[in-house]
Amino acid sequence: MRLYPLVALLHLVLAKFPTNFEFGVSTAAYQIEGGWLEGGKSLSTWDNLVHSGAVVDGSTGDVADDSFHKYHEDIALMKEYGIKNYRMSVSWSRIVPRGNKGTPVNMLAIEHYRRQFQALISVGITPYVTLYHNVMPANLYINGTGYTDPDFVEDFVYYGDVCFKYFGDLVKYWFTFNEPWCQAVFESCTPEEVNTKPYLITHAILLAHAKTADVYKKQYQPTQKGKIGIVLNTEVYYPKNPRNWPDVLLSLIHISEPTRPLYISYAVFCLKKKKKKK
Questions:
Q1: Within 10 Å of residue 147's Cβ, how many Cβ atoms?
Q2: How far apart are CA 164 and CA 168, in angstroms?
Q3: Where are the alpha helices (DSSP H) in the chain?
């Protein structure tokens, strides 16, 4: 009988969350907002996809949960349920409709999100904001190549800077990207691209994350006193033979392969920090 899965399950059951661990709920802009062409918003990549006939039953996010108009009702429900932390994403195509660095900021979107953040805070709910949850302005694909475009990194940094500037007094917890592994692996590729494109996308996302986080830490964190990070998805891998160390090692290093550099760099950071304390 293999004991490894049982040991892992036992560890999960007995493990305790730290006393300062924050529980909450989360959503993504395209999944719930609706208002797909209201308030100065431009077309997004998801808008283009669902209106191209790619969805079998013709479903779209044009209305979705209509949170664009009904966020006050959503907040009232969260308050009723005793929720204290809410992770949400903002829409790049709503805030910077053309998407490119230096293009106009949609002040209607700025006012909309500020009202939403203020409404959350007024009832004791802390907003955690994701800048990018798997959707970008369609213009970046129509007149570029999306993630692999030479300007993608700087376009994203510009968008992040806009958000920090206009929302940083209200938002103290930021995430640059949601699950970059999914974007890298599930992005459409031709047969000729499958062995290269996911890594090119990962490279661009990691650069955009690093540069955006650097902008926040140097230009905004000293006065806004917030934090910034990234949301990573991981899987659990079990060794084929728990008594075979190569199998065990492979199961450990196969965590979220495209974003492995983040795990490695964080481990190095922790080791250096530990040495300094000594």
A1: 24
A2: 5
A3: 4-14, 29-32, 45-50, 67-80, 92-95, 107-122, 139-142, 152-167, 180-186, 197-215, 221-224, 245-253, 260-277
Distance between CA atoms of residues 229 and 129, nearest Å: 10
Q: What is the pLDDT of residues 47-75, one digit of tens each?
A: 999 999 999 999 999 999 999 999 999 99
25 strand-pairing partners: 86
How far is Cα of residue 18 from the mean position of the Cα atoms in its chain? 23
Residue 56 burial by Cβ neighbours in a 10 Å radius (0-12, 13-18, 19+): exposed
Cα–Cα distance for residue pair 272/127, rounded to 1 Å: 32
SS3 readout for 118-148: HHHHHCCCEEEEEEECCCCECHHHHCCCHHH
Rounded to whole angstroms, how far apart are CA atoms 260 and 231?
13
Residue 32's CB: how many other CB atoms inside 10 A? 18
137 and 43 Cβ atoms separated by less than 8 Å:
yes
Give 224's contacts (C-beta < 8 A, 6+ positions apart): 164, 168, 169, 172
CB atoms within 10 A of CB 69: 13
pLDDT band at 117 (very low <50, low <70, confident <90, very high): very high
The closest alpha carbon to 221, from 267, 171, 180, 179, belongs to: 171
pLDDT in tens, 127-160: 999 999 999 999 999 998 999 999 999 999 999 9
